[in-house]
Structure formats: structure tokens, C-alpha cells
Amino acid sequence: MKDLLIIGSGGVGRDVLNIIDRSYKNNFSKIYFLDDNFSLGKLINGIEVVGKTKDLNKFSRQKTEVIIAIGNPILRRKFHKIVVRKKYNLFSLIDKSVIIKNPVKIGKGVIILPNSIVSQDTAIGDNTLIDTNVIVGHDVIIKDNCVISPMACVLGKVIIESQVEVGCGAQIYLNVKVGRLSKIAMGSSVYKDVPKLFTVAGNPARKIRDNSNEIKEGN
């Protein structure tokens, strides 16, 4: 039985602990947090912060699984690159209440929180976070390092490129393509393709901001 390192001890980290308690209680011998914002030894819901992300090398690759519990797509990719480069295994965590209508392809390090639904012939890329009560329709492609927030609805044949953030309650309609590093604001309804590096908002969703000044596309 392996140990589990959770990178990030904030809200998503605590959600991960809840899923482990519900669905993976006997999968790990020990569970620890790595967090750059908390001091060594701090307890988060009874789980110890044992170091910062730079301390990852102190843990055996053969005996350790890693989960990235961070709700920001840019930071998810940053730590994803570190974990992959250092050759640690990313563990996928899916709450037992999630409905998956097979066949579905799920990548490494994916987190799916309670009461979400993933429909058939969908593909979810590595290290993507699907939050609570999300509906993902049929034939959807969600690429790496995305964050789909609670109550979002992604309808059939949508393509979501990497590092996209979909806000709470947003709706993305059939056949839409969402470009990489874009953001869809809370409660928006998206009927048309979203260019990369833009934030859209409203019903119907319209471009409200060019993200290129705040996000380097190479991230």
C-alpha cells in the first residue's frame, strides 16, 4: 500500500480528503499535504503539512501517489509539469456518487467531486478537476489541466482545450470549442466558440477581457 501526497491544502485539498474518507479509505497507508503557504507541521483536518512542493523529492517514487488539489488551471499545469518531470505517479480520484456512462476515457490525476455526471464517449485529460454537481454531455473532449466549477453544464460534442476555467453554473452548448487558457465567467451561457486567451461572460457570452496580459501563453 502506498502513501498519498496531496499538493495543496486549501478548499480542494479538503474536498479530496472527504472523497478519500468516503471512497478510498483503505487505499493508502499514510496521507500528507505539501503546501507552499503553510508551515511545516500544521494540521489540516487532521492531516499534516510535511513540507513545500520543493520537498517532493524526499518521498519515494515507488511508494508514493500524488494528487494536485488546486483550483487554478495555471497552477495545476505548473505542478503537473513538476510531478511528471520528477516521475511521480498521479492518482485519479473519483467520488463514489459520480455517474460515469461508459465508455469514458479518464486521464491521470483527474479529480471528480460528488454528484457529477460524465456521459458516454467523453475524454477527460490529465490533471483536470471537475467539481461538484457538474454535467458533462456525450462526446465531449476536456483536455489537460482544466477546472470545471460546480453546477457547470457542458453539452454534447464540446471541445475544451487545456487550462480552461469554467465558472460556477456556466453552460456550454452543443459543438462549441473553447480555446486554451480561456475563462468562462460564472453563470454564462456559451453558444459560440471561445478564442484562446479570452474571458467571456453573460447570456449570450461575449468577450469581456483579453487574458494575454495576465497569462503568458507558454505557461
Strand order of the largest sheet: 7-10-13-16-19-22-24-25
Uncertain stretches:
none
The figure for the number of domains is 2
Assign the CATH superfamily of the largest domain. Answer: Hexapeptide repeat proteins
Main pleated-sheet profile: 8 strands, mixed
**Overall SS class:** mainly beta
Helix content: 10-25%
How many strand units?
A: 25
Query: What's the alpha carbon Rg, rounded to whole Å?
Result: 17 Å
Percent of residues in beta strands? 25-35%
Using the alpha-carbon principal axes, give the shape.
globular
N→C terminal distance: 35 Å
- CATH C-level label of the largest domain: Mainly Beta
**Helix and strand pattern:** EHEEEEHEEEEEEEEEEEEEEEEEEEE
Our count of helices gives 2
Question: What oligomeric state do these chains adopt?
Answer: single chain
As for the CATH topology of the largest domain, it is UDP N-Acetylglucosamine Acyltransferase, domain 1
Describe this structure in words.
The chain is mainly β and about 220 residues long. The chain has two domains: about 1-90, Rossmann fold (3-Layer(aba) Sandwich), CATH 3.40.50; about 95-205, Hexapeptide repeat proteins (UDP N-Acetylglucosamine Acyltransferase, domain 1, 3 Solenoid), CATH 2.160.10.10. Helix content is about 10%, strand content about 35%. The protein has helices at about 10-25, 75-85; strands at about 1-5, 30-35, 45, 45-50, 65-70, 90, 95, 100, 105, 110, 115-120, 120-125, 130, 135, 140, 145-150, 155, 160, 165, 170, 175-180, 185, 190, 200, 205-210. The strands form four sheets. It has an eight-stranded mixed sheet with strand order 7-10-13-16-19-22-24-25, with helices on one face. Strands 3-4-2-1-5-6 form a six-stranded mixed sheet. A six-stranded parallel sheet has the order 8-11-14-17-20-23, with no helix packed on it. A hairpin with a 2-residue loop joins strand 3 (about 45) and strand 4 (about 45-50). The longest helix has 13 residues, at about 10-25. The protein is globular and about 50 Å long. The N and C termini lie far apart (about 35 Å).
